[in-house]
Amino acid sequence: MKTLARNFVASALAILSRGILRKYRPIVVMVTGSVGKTSTKDAVAAALGEHFLVRKSEKSYNSEFGVPLTIIGAKNPWTNVVRWLKVFQEGLALLMLPNHFPKLLVLEVGADRPGDLAKILRIATPDVVVVTKLPDVPVHVEAYATPQAVREEEFAPAYALNPGAALIISSDDPHALSMATPLPVSITTYGYAEGADLQIRNARLAEGMEGEVAIEGKHYTLRAPGALGKQQLYAPAAALAVARALHVPVAQALSGLKKYTPPPGRARILSGRNGSVLVDDTYNASPAAVEEALNALSLVPGSRRIAVLGDMLELGRYSAEEHTRIGAVAAKTCDLVVSVGTRARAIAEGARKGGLADTQVLEFSDSKGAAEALKEVVREGDVVLVKGSQSIRTERVTEALLQRPEDLEKLVRQDKEWKRR
User: Fold this and answer.
1) Owning domain of residue 337
2) CA-CA distance, 149 to 48, in Å (whole number)?
């Protein structure tokens, strides 16, 4: 019964959303990829917000439900029937009555299983596509035959572009470069590689990440306030690439980007108890993202580096291998490795094999146990990375280690629906 109701609501939302897009014909920018979608979506909306009336996906509304909710401009009703009726009422009003509507939509799109993006592309056709990253072992790979099948799914919005339309991809991603080459589109690259159309240089930590981007021989400053890691500068660089594709002046886009802040749970630097520094990267976890986060710890001065790493879910047959590999990477970058969850036991084993002593590896079955124990472990000068897949709820560890209660609003999954789970 629940499945039938879910399918009915999804179909009704799709029909309503298609009608709204046909009526108002906004420019649609789609952001896809395995990691970094939400940060990029937020940066694109900020960069274009002074030129267009913009609406972006709220939080990570990137599914066959999230995309229509964004188009309608409604919040997630969760399981509240009355709120769902209000969503359809708002949608019908947009469709039937004269209304103001955004000139540009920035839609984050994602897939958990084969065919998810096809459903979204039947709702909305992109005018511009940004592909963030297509790693060797993508998240959700357990639902697909091969990693390449995941990459094909996530690259699907690029295949939907009209000839000559703008495709924005990372110059540092060999998979995206290879898949984009045959397409009859206008390709713009951004990243650290030589030859990128928007090349990022001199990444450094300065109240967050800061660097320069070179565009046609001119240099501009990029910032990702309050966040850690070279990868944080990808989002504002991609946003500038979208701005150029839509003929928005660079100066205006940079002015808009002053309002950009990386979203909660994406390597945000926070004050921790006992004089420690927390790197809250708890939104989600995949092997590529965890490795980037571990490597970024070297940018923060500190006496001891601690990695609190939860299960990385939906990796299928790659799970044991990737958890063990990440443990070995952590052993090279950290003084103490803390695993959280059943799958993360392989991280602990990999850390030991990588050279850490038993006293340098702690194991916990869940985030609540880890949070309570680490209150007594963390001390002044420690730099603590906290990261794990959503259902592991590693934000509970960050919450327990916060120095300032007011920083709670900077954490993910703090609304009532999540807190009850």
Assistant:
1) 268-413
2) 32
